[in-house]
Design goal:
Layout: H1 3-18, H2 22-39, H3 46-60, H4 64-81, H5 86-102, H6 106-124, H7 129-140
Helix pairs in contact: 1-2, 1-3, 2-3, 3-4, 3-5, 4-5, 5-6, 6-7
């Protein structure tokens, strides 16, 4: 069991979800979470990525409280990663901000967009195109 298997499962989750097979995607996401936990643990970047994959399905299925719990856990895990794995932390936090907005928690989404702007500025500088993209997303969230 490896991180590659978890990644492949998450890709399949996304494909199933985008194909309208969200319940099946959620079942696969649950299996991916179990595999991820046993294969690499919660300190690995795959954990928060798998959490947001699961949360995306959970939101679509209307399970808002469960989705919020998954997103919150993904944010906590991504924040622990950001000091040594900017790219994966940024990806998770971006998905989480979008999910917070979809859940109707615009304050949490805006705060996370602000955190992403600051993180991107610190890692890439104010002249980097991804800094401007993060800033634009934050401004559009207001």
């Amino acid at each position: 069991m490896s991180v590659d298997q978890v990644r492949d499962m998450c890709r399949e989750v996304a494909a199933l979800h985008s194909g309208g097979r969200t319940r099946e995607a959620q079942d696969l996401a649950n299996r991916a979470l179990t595999l991820c936990l046993s294969a690499v643990g919660k300190a690995h970047y795959a954990w928060p990525l798998t959490l947001v994959a699961s949360a995306t399905c959970t939101v679509a299925l209307g399970e808002r409280l469960k989705a919020r719990t998954l997103v919150d856990e993904a944010v906590t895990a991504a924040r622990a990663l950001k000091a040594h794995d900017f790219e994966h932390a940024r990806a998770v936090l971006t998905h989480a901000a979008e999910l917070y907005a979809e859940l109707g928690d615009h304050k949490a989404a805006l705060e996370l967009w602000q955190e992403l702007v600051q993180l991107t500025r610190e890692e890439l500088g104010e002249d980097h195109p991804r800094y401007f993209a993060a800033l634009a997303r934050r401004l559009s969230a207001e």
